[in-house]
Amino acid sequence: MGGLLQHLGDTGLMARVLRSTSWIMLGYGASQGLRLGSNLILTRILYPEAFGLMALISLVTVGLMLFSDVGIAPSIAQSKRGDDPDFLNTAWSIQVVRGLCLWLIASGLAAPLSGFYSAPELKLYLPIAALALLVSGFNPTRIETAHRHLLMGRLTLLDLASQLIGILAMIALAWWWQSVAALVVGGVIAALAKLALTWTGLPGASNRFRFERRAFAELVGFGKWVFLSTVFWFFASQGDKAVLGKYLSLETLGVYNIGFFLASFPLLLGAGVTGRVMIPVYRDAKHQTRKIASLRYGLSGVILVLLLGMALAGPWLVGVMYDVRYAQAGAMVTLLALALAPQVIGLTYDQAALAAGDSRRFFIVTATRAVLQISFLVVGVIGFGLIGALVGMGLAQLLTHAAVVWLARVHEVWDLRHDVLTGGIAALVACLALWLHQDVLVALAAG
C-alpha cells in the first residue's frame, strides 16, 4: 500500500495516468450512480413513453454534436501548441459559433423529425433541449487543458456537481409537472451549471474571441478526419436508436433505453478512460511497451468484468430495481452487454492513431464500425425484430475488431495474447449468460 501511495504522489507520466484513471473511474462511477438513482425515481414518477421521447431527443442532439465535431478536444490534447493562448482562444471561438449553429439546426429539424417519428412532442421540446448545445459552446478550454495534463480531480468534482444540480432539477420538475418537459429543462439546467462551475472553478486565463489563421488551419487540418470519424461514430453509437425509433413504439423504445443505460455503462466508462489517458500515454511513453501493456490489461480486465457481470446479472437487476413495465429490459441488458464485448477488447488501440496525428486511419475504423452496425441492425430488425437487431449489433462489433487490429498493427500496439485471452473469457461467459437466461430471452423474442 505504501508503494502505491508513493507512486500516486509521484509527478511522472505513469503516476499522472494512474491518478487520472482513478479520478475518471471514481467520477464515472459516481456519475452513473447519480444517473441510476435519478432513473429509479423518475421511472416511478413518469411513464415509459417519456423515456422513449427523450431517447429521440438525445438522438438528435448527440447526433448534431457528433456531426459537427471538428476534433477540438483531441487537437488540444495532441498539439504542440495545446497550451498556447492564441491556439486555445481560436479553438474556443470555433466552439462558440458551432454551439449557436447547432441550436439553430436543431430548431429547424424539430418539425420534420416530429413527423418522421410520429412524435408531435418533438416540435416543442427539441428546440428547448438544444439550448444545452448553445450553452455548452461557451465551456472554457481549461476543461481540455486539464485533460491534456491529466489533472482530473477538480474537473471531476465540478462535473459531478453540475450533474447533481441537473438531476435535482429534473426530479423536482417531474414531481411538479408530471411531464417529459422536466427531463428537457433539467438537461439545460445541467449545462448551465457546468458552464458556471467550470468558468469559476478551474484555474487559468479566461477565453476570449480570437481568430489566428495558423491555429485555425491546424485545428481544421487535424479535425477534418476527426469530423468524418464522428459523423460515422454517430451511426455507430446512436444508430440503434435511429433505426429502432422507426420500428418500435415509444413505450418499447423507452424500455430499450433503460436496458441500454444499464448494459453500456462499463463500455462508456472504458471509453472515457481510454479517450482521456491513452493519447498522452501513446504520445509521451510510446517506447515503454511493458507499462503500456500493463495498463491495457488492467483497463480491459476491469471493463470486461463489469460488462460481463451485467450480462449475467441484467435480468435480476432489472427485476429488483424496476417495476413490471420495464421487465423486458432485463433480457435486453444481457444481449446488449454481450454485443458490446468485442468493442471492449479493442478499446485501448485506436487512441494510438490520434496520438500520432493519424486521424485518417482512425476515421476508416470508425466508418467501418458504423456501416457494419447500421447494416446489421436494419437487416436484423426487419427480418427478426428486436432480437435480430441486437444479435446483428454483436456481429457488427465482432467484424469491426478486424479493422481495429489493422489499425493497431500499423501503429505497432497490437497485443495478440491480450485479444486471445480476453476474447476467450468473453466467449465462455457469453455461453453461460445465454444458458442462464434462455427463458427471458425466449419471452423477449415472443414479443
Would you write up a description of this structure?
The protein is an all-alpha fold. It has one domain (11-446). It has helices at 2-8, 13-45, 48-67, 72-78, 85-116, 122-129, 131-136, 142-148, 153-177, 181-201, 213-247, 250-284, 289-321, 329-345, 351-355, 359-410, 416-436, 438-446. It is 83% helix and 0% strand. It has 18 helices and no strands. The longest helix has 52 residues, at 359-410.
Mean pLDDT: 85
Q: Decide which structural class fits the backbone.
A: mainly alpha
Number of domains: 1
Tally of helical runs:
18
Number of strands: 0
- Net shape: globular
Low-confidence stretches: 1-11
- Topology pattern, helix = H, strand = E: HHHHHHHHHHHHHHHHHH
Strand content is: under 5%
Main sheet attributes: strand count, strand direction, barrel closure: none
Concise structural overview:
The chain is mostly helical and 447 residues long.
Please tag this protein with its features.
single chain; 447 residues; mainly alpha; 0% strand; disordered N terminus
Topology:
Elements: H1 2-8, H2 13-45, H3 48-67, H4 72-78, H5 85-116, H6 122-129, H7 131-136, H8 142-148, H9 153-177, H10 181-201, H11 213-247, H12 250-284, H13 289-321, H14 329-345, H15 351-355, H16 359-410, H17 416-436, H18 438-446
Helix pairs in contact: 2-9, 2-12, 3-6, 3-11, 3-12, 4-8, 5-6, 5-11, 6-10, 9-10, 11-16, 12-13, 12-14, 13-14, 13-17, 14-16, 14-17
